[in-house]
């Protein structure tokens, strides 16, 4: 089912009404006589052909998956900046450019790190996953304790031993299995170390093996942060090593020795935010900015699946980048009263690093940012549904902004809005995993548009051919109508005074 959205004369009144929604009283105030009349929007500038062309270009193998902090991400960022220049936007990065560079600090195990169990020599993060980069030298007998239940551990002598167990268990209702698995491994390992273990070895069961296969590549790279951030700290502790299910046959054999020499290294390299601007037309309101947010990076070149090793990230986040370029064209054709600011954040997949950096050191006055409309994966799943994160408590930080977005949806595509993913108890914690979050923490009204996860999320199967271009266009038009309304209304969106973000 397609969702085309064309503006007809009969609808212009409805669209104009959207621009006045938001604050209940201030929305009714008359404009000052000196303020120019509100121009007609340019929703027709958002075209499926443009979206498809840009999506296929950015998610092509040419950019090798745009991994954050690599030359591939930098080349993709240059391509985006060139599109912004060609559209006619002003550079709004550092030093009169489209770019704001920042450093990533990466902490990982050296290639010389090794672990040996009996006769099995393991290359960490290739043959086995090391949960955290730790400096550790261990040589100890290995003892197998089944599933590491309290009764099994009590029967074993774990003092001074490397302790192995096979993962088991099921999450309570509503908890993501992946999050349950990592939390359980963390907690059981901590309990074993407290009981005297000098190392912990975890073996996957059949279900855990799926997570090992799909998410294990994330551990290969180590940890990332902005310089001095919490993930840059290196400690000496008992290591936890995670093995595939096939290892169970030999791990549980008695009389084996565990030996490990793990050495951590840490270094920095650059990532970049791409920042562009369309100045507003009102002498006063153009000093304020509506920020359209996205990220250009993905997972890069990783383990091959069905012969494909390039994880292109067409939906994550090629769809949002194509949408942002389309929004640029619309605002360039007809600027709003307020300025439109477009930020492609680098290294989002590394821990929201680009948005954390930009929100801390924006290239425009922070107080001039009246709202953040963040875009994350908008091209998959049911053609008539979408989600607005930050629309309900405790995630909502501006009821005013949410009302404007909901009105824009009714004036435009009329998506059925999934509210489950915005609830604090949702197992994926999706609200906390995209670039609106640092801005919301600063009290800036912020929402996120998404069409949610799918089976190809963070796999090499996330390809342009899987994207519903008509749906991508419909979501883009919804975002545009929201942003256009915010950019032209007399008053900036009001932040909720009692907003308190808790996870």
TrEMBL record:
The keyword Transit peptide does not apply. The keyword Ligase does not apply. It comes from the Bacteria. Keywords: Signal. Residues 273-479 form the Peptidase M28 domain. It holds the Pfam family Peptidase_M28. Gene3D superfamilies: 3.50.30.30, Zn peptidases. This is Peptidase M28 domain-containing protein. It comes from Hymenobacter algoricola.
